[in-house]
Amino acid sequence: MKSLILFFILITLWLLMSGHYSVLIISLGIFSCAFCVYVAKRGKLIDDEGLPIFFIPRLLNYLIWLFKEILKSNLSTAKVIINGKVEPETFTVKASQVTDVAKVIYANSITLTPGTVTTKMQKDIFEVHALNSDFGNDVRTNEMDNKVTWLEGKK
Amino acid sequence: MFLAGLIACAITGILILVRIILGKTTFDRILAVNSLGTVIVIGISLHGFYSSRPEFLDIAIVYALINFIGTVAVLKLFSTGSLGGDK
Amino acid sequence: MELILDIFTGICFFIGSLSIIIGACGLIKLPDVFSRIHAAGMIDTGGTAFFILGMIFQTGWSLITVKLILIGVFIFFTSPVTSHVTANLARQKNILPLGKKIGKIL
């Protein structure tokens, strides 16, 4: 079932990228997508971690919130760079997610908003470097953590 | 309009090159090269629109992917001294 | 209609240009590696997002729009990975960040 979903995603990508719809090109595309799915299945890559489709229904809501956060922190970072008031600080936060995929999404969301970067992680403790104490407080309030836990949907 | 964007990309590229020349540690230089790659991806797409040949976007996609792979490969080589496999 | 789309494209390109130039200034100005990663993140998110939005206003709906969105998605997914790998490797090589450390760091 998951192999079929992966094949569908790959063939859609092929059709959108190529733009030529002759019989030869499409059959070559079907052949190479099937070969990719075969290799992935043989390497046991198709599971909940390799093809995380369990949070797709809630993904759009999260992405809109994330874009809003990125826009806000872009503005604050620009202000900090122009003012030159840099007081970097380093601290640790605890992630409350269960699966590894959700932890990676949480760490990547922290890194993607400018102003905060995850520099190290051990099990469920992240070390975060922030440009200013305002950015640090944004992470320490755990708002993003709760959002990602909701996105994961295991609790 | 596209020309203005291209000029902004050129100015940004020059500023990033200053950081590549000045940079104290290796990480500064790798970070700056990665940012330069992102700016070049924007520049390729803008140049495609400027000369009204949007087929340049394919090259931009390939450049974005190779930029990522290249940065991670250089960092891995720098950290472990090999690119995997037997030493 | 053409004029309105042109104006939107101009606004998006202006914000994008401002974003990448401020990011590059930050790359020069900020004091250490960990702070510079934030400036590089600004180039990767703000700059590309607004430039690609501006180009989408010019194309309308075609395969070119899909390719632009794909470039955006690639950069959106790969930028945090390179930032994290750079920061993590710098910490492994025992470079400590400037500024205060709150609590016990790893």
Characterize the overall form of chain C. Answer: elongated
CA-to-CA gap between the ends of chain A? 25 Å
Give the class of chain C from helix and strand content and strand pairing: mainly alpha
User: In the residues of chain C, how many domains can be counted?
Assistant: 1
How is the quaternary structure best described? heterotrimer
Order of helices and strands of chain A: HHHEHEEHH
Work out the count of structural domains of chain A.
Answer: 2
- Biggest pleated sheet of chain A: 3 strands, antiparallel
Q: What Rg of chain A, in angstroms, do the CA atoms define?
A: 20 Å
Tally the helices of chain A.
Answer: 6
Number of helical runs of chain C? Answer: 3
Portion in helices of chain C: over 70%
Ends of chain C: how far apart? Answer: 56 Å
Major beta sheet, strand line-up of chain A = 1-3-2
Q: What proportion strand of chain A?
A: 5-15%
pLDDT below 50 for ≥5 consecutive residues: which ranges of chain A? none
How large is the radius of gyration of chain C?
18 Å
The sequence of SSEs of chain C as H and E is: HHHE
Beta percentage of chain C is under 5%
Plain-language structure description:
The complex is a heterotrimer of chains A (155), B (87) and C (106). In chain A, 60% of the residues lie in helices and 12% in strands. Chain A contains six helices and three strands. Chain B is an all-alpha fold and 87 residues long. Chain B has one domain (2-80). The mean pLDDT of chain B is 88. Chain C is an all-alpha fold and 106 residues long. Chain C is built from three helices and one strand. Chain C has helices spanning 2-29, 33-59, 63-92, and one strand spanning 100-101. The radius of gyration of chain C is 18 Å and the shape is elongated. The mean pLDDT of chain C is 88. Chains B and C meet through α1, α2 and α3 of B and α1, α2 and α3 of C. β1 (89-94) of chain A pairs parallel with β1 (100-101) of chain C, so a sheet runs across the interface.
